[in-house]
Amino acid sequence: MATSAPEQTNRDPMSDSKMETFPEYHQSHKKSGRLWLILCGGILVLVSGTMFAMGAFETSAAPTSTENSAESPSQTPEPKSPWYQPLTNMVSSWFPSSSKLPANVITKPVTRGKFRITINERGFLDSQRNETVTCEVPGSTTIISIVEEGVSVKKGDVVVELDSSALADKARQQEIDVTQAEAKLSTAKENLEIQKTQNTSDIAFVELSLELADLDYDKYIEGELPQERDKITGQIRLKEEQLARKRESYEFTKRLAKKGYRSQSDLEAERIAVTQAEIELRVEQENFRVLENFTSKRTIRELEADADEFVRELDRVKRQASAALSKAEAEYQSALLTLEVEKEKYNEWLKHIELCTLRAPQDGQIVYANSNSGSRRGGSTEPEIYEGATVRERQALLKIPDLTKMKIDARIHESMISQLDVGLPVLIRADAQPGEIFNGVVSQISSVPLSGSFPNYDIKEYQIAINLTDPPERVKLLRPGISAEFEVIVDDRENVLQVPVQSVVQVGREYYSWVVKGKSLERRQVKVARSNDTDIEILDGLTQGEIVVMSPRSLFADEITQLEEILVAELAEQGIDESESVQEDSSEPKANDKEKPGKPKGEKPPGGGPGGGDPAAFFQRMDKDGDGALSKSEIPEPMQASFDAADTDADGSLSLDEWKAVAAKRNR
Questions:
Q1: Is the same domain home to 223 and 256?
Q2: CA–CA separation, 24 vs 94, rounded Å?
Q3: Residue 223: CB partners within 8 Å, gap ≥ 6?
């Protein structure tokens, strides 16, 4: 914390006689002060540059002490001063910290109290639950009746009746198609049953034929064939016996004829009888041979072929039966599906007829869904929703907002969006309810900006939603579409030390105030935090009750300008861009800045080098030959003593990574 210096400390002894008033002091010392500053500026550049460079390399080369950390592990190290602090202190020391109090100066006290940061915007009220009644009838239809706009309805009340006559005609035609489909299904079912019975009969017949063929085969093999054999064999034996007797008779007659007891005709008759018996025997023997070699084999083969044919016939009949059954089943399934499709179409038409009667999905107030887009585009301004109007499928007919749950839709500029968070409290003032304050909370913040509108297409705004949290009986006082002003409370704290924003001046990254000390003024460095439209929070440098000067930039313009010129010159000599040290707004701190509570302004930016700023840029400025490495001769002479310690790979040059390591150790 900066302390108040004694009123007469470090003052020129001649100032008592020369500085009668604050303006006269600056006028008389204007030329001499500038010459003095220019003379000392060169000395300061050399001294400060050497101090920064040596400090960077000594930090990187010095080993880390483990004894101190072991002795006090719980101690938190003191935060290092910002990189520009020594330079700022040196520059500030050339200017007297106190001066006489000018006449007619405006002052304000340092106060402690309530500190609030808010965002004020306007938006439009809408319901959190906006139910839309939509026409879901295909094609187009006509509104027969509709509830008047503004009427309050209950959930389930009929709000719109649409013309359903054409739909009823189509439903009746579809009912006929359903009846025909049912008849086809019945026929297909009967055909299926008939086919099943026919298949059973056909298969049974072939199976019986196969069984009979097997029996015929067995009958011939085991019955008829042996019978034929026995019959022919018997005939052969009989013929053989008859032949034997004939031969005996022939021989006996032959002996008798020789003796004269028989005639030659008798002998010839006996011979003929023998010949006939031989022929009959040969016939029977041939019959047996034909039976064994031909007839039996042929008959057996025919019986086997008949049996095999019935086996194949059985397989063929089964396949035909299966195919016929599949066809009958497919026809049945087709008829069944056709009936289902026709019924679905019929039910769909009935559903469309039901959709012609629209009911309220929730309690609320009727609002016609007239877009009125024609009024903005130069087209027709006639309403779209009324009795007798033709409406199309998916066209919105009515909106029924829930008036017990309201919200505000608004747009917030991108410069303020970082201050918003979901859950922040909001105070709402509706134009239709003057004097009434409603409460709300931020419920939604869009993640992407909205498209700009004519003519400001480059303006980026974010959509936010604010839900009202008041009881339903109070919320019902509002209506959708009403304009309202809202105040988002970003920060609201008690017992905060604060001063007017006009009493603080920014020089570089430091902030100053001029404090009244009796009849003189003391320039005081202060540490600030957040600010609102009127005040800024003070973290250090001022105490409650002290008096500060308003608008010091206009009163002490020369002093502030000289301070800024020297600071810029010093930074330029060290190769540091002015933009790295001086913020865009070098006047009073901005109201509603985006820093979070407790975050002091003017902190050192991350990634600074040994002398502050970007280490890569500093490295590039010192790399004279542009080879991407720093030799020992390219760095300032005070740094050369620590060159070997920084050169970790011992290649005789410093790479960018080694230089960044030096910068990182310096910043810790």
A1: yes
A2: 19
A3: none
Calpha distance 522→107 (Å, rounded) = 13
Would you give the end-to-end CA distance of the chain in angstroms? 22
3-state helix/strand/coil string of 607-663 = CCCCCCCCHHHHHHHHCCCCCCCECCCCCCHHHHHHHHHHCCCCCCCECHHHHHHHH
DSSP-derived secondary structure letter, 580 = G
Q: What percent of the chain has pLDDT over 70?
A: 73
Q: Tell me whether residue 332 is in a domain.
A: yes
**415 located within any domain:** no
Task: Judge if 282 and 365 occupy the same domain.
Answer: no
Q: Which of 320, 338, 355 is the last residue of a domain?
A: 355
Q: How far apart are CA 337 and CA 317, in angstroms?
A: 30
pLDDT of 262: 84
Angle CA 110–111–113, to nearest 5: 160
Residues 185 and 263 in one domain: yes
The H-or-E segment that residue 217 falls in is helix 165-219
- Greater pLDDT, 96 or 265: 265
Residues β-bridged to residue 442: 466
Q: Which amino acid is at 30?
A: K
Residues 307 and 187 both lie in one domain: yes
In this structure, of 66-75, 256-265, 445-454, 536-545, the range with the lowest mean pLDDT score is 66-75
21, part of any domain: no
Contacts of 231 (CB under 8 A, 6+ apart): none
**Residue 112: beta bridge partners?**
497
Compute the distance between CA of residue 659 and CA of residue 629 in angstroms, rounded to an integer.
9
- For residue 129, the number of C-alpha atoms closer than 13 Å in the C-beta half-sphere is 9
CATH number at residue 365: 2.40.50.100
Query: In the predicted model, is pLDDT for residue 230 greater than 50?
Result: yes
- DSSP notation for 504-565: -EEETTEEEEEEEETTEEEEEEEEEEEE-SSEEEEEES--TT-EEES-HHHHSHHHHHHHHH
Banded model confidence at residue 345, pLDDT cuts 50, 70, 90:
very high
- pLDDT tops 90 at residue 109: yes
3-state secondary structure of 365: strand
Nearest in space to 607 (alpha carbons), one of 659, 648, 660: 660
pTM of the predicted model as reported, rounded to 2 decimal places: 0.48
pLDDT (mean) for 228-254: 90
Question: How many separate domains does the chain show?
Answer: 2
Enclosing domain of residue 232: 165-355
